[in-house]
Amino acid sequence: MTAAIRLQGVDYRASKEFAIRDLALNVPRGAVYGFLGPNGSGKTTAIKLMLGMLEAEHGTIDVLGHDIPRSTHLALAKVGYVPERLHLWMHLTVEEAMRVHASFYATWDQARADALRNQFGLRPSQPIFALSKGEAGKLMMLLALATQPELLVLDEPTDGLDPVVRRDVLEALVEYVGDNQATVLISSHLVHEQERICDWVGVLDGGKLVAEMPMQEFRSGIKRIRVRGAPRAPDAAPFTLLSRDDQFGRGETWVVRGWQDAHAGWLSQSGASVSEVESLDLEESFVELLRSGRSAQTLKVPA
Amino acid sequence: MSQMTRFGALLGVQWKQQRKELVVLTLLVAMLPSTILWTARNDGPIGPLWYQSIGQSIGAIGAVAAVLIGSLLALRPFAFDAQTRHVYAMTLPVRRRDYSMFRIGTGVVLSLFPTAGVLVGALVAVQALPSGIGLRAFPGGLAARFLLATVTAFAGAFALQYGLGKRATRWALVAVTTIAATELVGQLLLHTSLTTPFFQALVSQWSPLRIFVTRWTLFDV
Q1: What pTM was estimated for this model as a whole?
Q2: Which residues have a Cβ under 8 Å from the Cβ of B205 and sit 6 or more positions away?
Q3: Which of A8, A171, A244, B209 lies in the 20 to 30 Å Cα band around A91?
């Protein structure tokens, strides 16, 4: 499967405190890719690098077969972008914003734009500065979808929207993706929302990609198991131990990735026994991944 | 999409952003010559020298107005873009250099409005010039100088703002402070102006800034 977005070895220093280091990321064509991470993890910075708004110090970025930043304008002609904050010229009306946007995109679909405007309940004469947060979010989604993009890059598109508006926006997105087989990269810290619509997931934390895998694998691949007589250092384990907590002498709770039922046999060879295996939901899996990533980083710090 | 369509769209955006101030400024510069002529009527005997002096005043104020309007046309669109951290501009599917050229083009086109104001105002004021006093009026020349000066000021402000971005104000303040401090040191310690050569070089024969110091006058021999 070819990649709609590919980042390799990307470095970018945003400030003294924060940097993206050696970021590698692959968004497969046709995927709805959930870009997860806590606030301040670098999601917006990574998106700005992908769209040529920022320039990486090292590494390569390819978007829809175009090198960024050299051919950014060619990539942007096929990308619909919805940023986390309203980015339009405030003094324009809804209709004027649509007209200006249309003049920059050969693929602009006026019929779709009008249909979405009606669906979203936006009045053509409404000035942008007077739009509510929900209306502004709808207008940005309208502009992105009406250009019939091959790739949609959505940075926290539903953050701060009420549930009704969020549903409207996501419905329009899902309908467009279903009709056009477009690729979507959707950044959010709302894990449950991602779980419903995404088929791939990438987790970013502290400027590093902690995990990248199909959603199904992410959802089913991380388990919480209760272990009695747990070995002290399960180095050769056929799964990845993400975290372990002592249960006050009643064994340990492990969170593991890549668990299969047959792995209980490996544990029993080490003198341990598994009493319970529990699947984690996406949010718990996400939190455990972040925890394990952070503790691994902590361990690397020399004493 | 043709580049002209895109240019037209950006021209429309900037017109809507700045139309109120442009209309006010165009009216002000249009009324300027007649207002100066009218208010100066009590300043001594009205003759050729009076007209020449008033014509130079109109020109001098026109040069200042050109600097202000040119700067405004460059700085205000940047400020509008900066309100949204330039995100919309940077995610439009155009090369950065093309976007800059569009912005330069829209600024130059919009500078025609106050220029038309200067021309109309000068033509009206010329009606006050009595025949047979040996002076000629140059409304077209004044308007042409105004346009050149506006475009020059626009180019300077545009280069400063778009080249330096958020740092433009800081660097402009550093430059002004350095010049002021140099002049102060020269006057206090050496009793001479140290900045005169600098300003002479700025308006030398080959400098575009010379437009601001050449003879700006509405009435001349």
Answers
A1: 0.84
A2: none
A3: A171
